[in-house]
Amino acid sequence: MNRPSPLSPPPECPAHSPGAELLPLSAATGAPEPREVYRRLREQWGNVARVELEPGVPAWLVMGYRELLTITRQEQVFSRDARNWRDLNEGVVPPHSGLLPMMAWRANVIGADGPEHRRLRQPLDDGVARIDQRKARRQVQSVCTELIARFSQQGRADLVTDYATIVPMLSIASLFGLDSAEGQELLRALLALFGSAGDSQDGNRHFEEILVDALRRRQENPTDDLTTAFINHPNLRNESERIQSMAVMISSGTEGVNAWTSLTLRLMLTDPRFAARMHGGRLGVDDALDEALWRDPPMNNMPARYALRDTELGGRHIRRGDVLILGIAAANDDPAIRPDDTAGEPGNRAHLAFSAGPHVCPAQVPARLITRTAVNTVLHLLPDMRLAIPAEKVAWHPSPWTRIPVSLPVEFSAARIPALGSR
After folding, report:
1. Which domain of life is it from (predicted)?
2. Which of the two ends of the chain, N or C, has the fewest CB atoms closer than 10 A to its terminal CB?
3. Is the residue at 142 inside a domain?
4. What is the pLDDT of residues 267-287, one digit of tens each?
5. Which CATH number covers residue 303?
6. What is 181-226 written as a DSSP string?
7. Pick from 370, 394, 313, 305: nearest CA to 144
8. Nearest by Cα to 344 from 302, 288, 301
9. Considering the domain boundaries, does residue 265 fall inside one?
10. 3-class state of residue 320 by DSSP
C-alpha cells in the first residue's frame, strides 16, 4: 500500500487543505478529555500539528515525546527567544494580543539561550537550594489547615477557589517575604495573565508593579527571604533582572501548583479506581501526584520555541521564524512511549510535565512539597469529602496553556477544625 509523503498530506483531509480552519489551542485544553482531542490531531497530522493560538495566529503543536525532547535540547535550532518569532515581527500578532504576556520576549531566564540563560538560571537554582524544606512544609501545612478551618463547619466548599488557588500563592509569597494581602493581589493578576485573553496585559502590568514595590522595600529592609537573596545575587545586574527572576519563580510556581493540586484532587473525586488505590494505600501521595502529571499535566501546552532556520521535525517542514508549542499533555500520551497506557505506573517520572533540556522547571522541589502537603492535608482533615456535582459538569478556565478547573464543589461531614496556631 502506497503511503503519502509526510511533507505532502493528502488533499482530501480537511485539516490539511489550504485555508482550512485550524483547531484553536484553547479548545483542546478546555475540552472534557483533552487527550482525545490530541489523539485526533495526531491521527490527522502525526506528531507535529498545525493549530491556532488566537484568530489568525498559527503555530506548530509538538505532540511527539521524542520530537519534544528534540526541540527542548537543541538550542542552536530551536530558540527560546521570542524576538525570532516571524509572525510577531511581521505584525500578524497585534500589539494588544493577549498572547504577549506569556509569549513576548523578556530580559529574563525564559527568553535567553546559551551562556546568558545559564547566568540568569543560576539565581533561581541557588534560591531553590536555600529553601529550608522542613520549615517550608510547616508553613504550607499551616496555610492549608487555616484555609480548611474557615469552611470545615459548613460541610461544603469549593476546593479550587477556597483552597487550591490560594495555597500556592500564599506559600510562595511567604518565601519572598510578601504578606497575605499581597499574595491575593498577585493571584488575581496571575489569573488574568495566564488566561491570555483581553485582560492579560493589565494583569501582567499589575503583577510586576507588586513585585517592584516588594523589591524596593527589601532593598531598604533586607531580611532572610528570596527577595533579599535575588537582590544580593551577583548574577543579577539590575532591578529589572531581579524583578524578572521573581516573576518567573512566582508565576510558574503558583499557577503550576494550583493546577497540579486541583487536578490531583479532581482525579480522586471523579476516578473511583484512582481514589480506591489512594485510600487503600496501594498508591502513595507522591505516586498519585506523578500519575496526575502523566494524565493531565498542569501546563497542557507550554510556550514556546522559535525556529532559527528552515528544518524538518516529525515529517513537517518548519520555516525559520515559526513558533513551536510544547504539547506536554499530548507527548505524555504518545503511543510510542505509552503503547499500553502503563507509563504512568508508580515510580515512573519520565513524564514531561516539567519540560526538559536547559529550560526544565527550576522549582520542581518546592512545587512538589507544596502540592504534596496541600493534598495530604485535605485528605487527612476531610476524609469523606465527595464531589457535589456530576464529574462531567466540571468546567475549565479558558487558556491555551494551563488546565485548571473553574470549580470543584465538595460536600463532607461538618466539623470544627482549629487552625494550627490555635491548637
Report:
1. Bacteria
2. N
3. yes
4. 999 998 888 877 766 678 888
5. 1.10.630.10
6. HHHHHHHHHHHHHHHTSTTHHHHHHHHHHHHHHHHHHHHHS--SSH
7. 370
8. 288
9. yes
10. coil
